[in-house]
Structure formats: structure tokens, C-alpha cells
Amino acid sequence: MALVTTKEMFKKAYEGKYAIGAFNINNMEIIQGVIRGAKAKNSAVILQCSTGALKYAGPKYLKAMVDAAIEETGVDVALHLDHGPDFDSVKLAIESGFTSVMFDGSHYDYEENVQKTKEVVEYAHAHGVVVEAELGVLAGVEDDVVAAEHIYTNPEQAVDFVNRTGVDSLAIAIGTSHGAFKFPPDFNPQLRFDILEEIQSKLPGFPIVLHGASAVDPNAVETCNKYGGNIAGAKGIPVDMLRKAASMAVCKINMDTDLRLAMTAAIRKVFGDNPKEFDPRKYLGAGRDAVQKVVEGKIEFVLGSTNSLK
Questions:
Q1: pLDDT band at residue 145 using 50, 70 and 90 as cut-offs
Q2: How far is CA 301 from the centre of its chain?
């Protein structure tokens, strides 16, 4: 298989009523865990990097590790820039060999978002790269993304935005939220499926994206806290809601927090059970295995993309 764009992935996902998992990567162990999980479930996958990840690991290192993972496993992979804040970030990702980019202009007013997104689309398409954009605002904090206010996506505006910019996919705001602390402990999250349904009816066949869609596994949180962590009040999106969204127009679901929690829990457990351990292979290896387990579970129970590589 090869490094690919998301076009064919999303077409198959839309028709098959499943979604492709987009997992954030920062280092070798996370890449290996995600790719091995996708391989075990015979699923296509999207590896995505924030600008923070690019600064941390470097685009050349990340791209080389992704290439090695593809060669080792034969899994179809799209390499995606997550929340590109400006044209220069998008340009760097494309020059580094990414096959997909997101330009996040959701913090601009509508007309400026349209204008800047259109410029990115024209440049990316000229280089054979697909573009995701965002309309609406997700509250929460994760990596370089910080927003205090949630603004639901307007379906009429979504149609106008897609038609005027030429984007290949659109991230919408229907109730998901970034980070581990998405909601107050006593709050019952609800996704606005009415908004999703209206957008799907107005843009038939068009791939929709959900950001901030980690479920925040309470077992991982409990393990972190048991072994010295202080992660109180973490709460995520119910799995059944995500699976329903994946059966509709949502073709890409972003998950980062769940990987971070699983890896941290596994590493904390190694240190807690064996305080004398100082071999990075032992604790990072445990973290890698935990990431793989999470990815396999997401593919089977949330995304529904098992055996999508055919």
C-alpha cells in the first residue's frame, strides 16, 4: 500500500457508513501503536500532526517514520496536518510530503475564513493535496487549540462555504469538544444530530469531520490517578453517539486525548509497579502497546472501519 490522500478513503467510508480514524502522532511509539492497530483490523487510517507535533519531532522525522510504518505494514495511510493556523504552516506540511492538510480559519469572521480557506485550497490542489476546513467553533483545550466558546455550525452557511472554497471535507461543530476535560462532571453530552442530518441532506455525499471526539476512557483515567496522576473530572463523548455519527456523513473522526491517556496510564503503571525501572524500551513499549489496543477498539466499536482495506 502507500501514502495516499483521503479522497478514496472518504468515498468508501461514506458509502460503507463508517468513518476513518484520525489519530494524532508525536513520536515513534505512537506511530507504531496506531499503525499496528490499523493493520490488526485491516483498516485504512489517518495519521495527523498538529503544528506542536511538527515543532516537537520535526516534519522530516515524522514523515520518515510514517514512511517506515507504511513499508512495514502495508496499510493505506493519509498524512494530515491538523489545525493548520496559517498559510505558511500548510505550505510547510505540503513541502514535507503530507497528503492532506487542514486550514483552521474558524477563529476568523465568516468572509475572512472563506477567503483564506480558498487560497489554501488553490495552493494545495495545485500540489495534489486535499484540504479540510472548519466551520463553527469547538470549545476546549488540546495542544495548540484553545477556545472558550462553542458555536454550532450553521447548515446553510456550510453549503455556501463548501461551494465557495472548494474544500474536500468540512469539520463541523455539533457538540464535541477538545481535550480531556470537555464537560462538567454532571453534564450529559448530546450531539446535535439534527444539524448533521441537515448538512448531509444539503451536501449529499460530502465528507464531514468530527474534531474533539475522544471518549475519555474512565479506566485509563483511573489508572493514571492510581499511579500518581491528578486527572480529575475528565469526561468524553459517548461511544454510541460517535458510532451513529460514523454511520451518517461523518467520514473522519479525530482522536488524540484517548491515545495520550492510554499511553500515560501504561507508563505510570510501569513506574508504579517497578520503581527501579529506567529502560525507556520497557515503559515506552508498554505505552505503544496501550495505544495499539485503543486504536483496535476505536476501529471496531466506534469507527466501524474493520476490513475497509480491500
A1: low
A2: 16
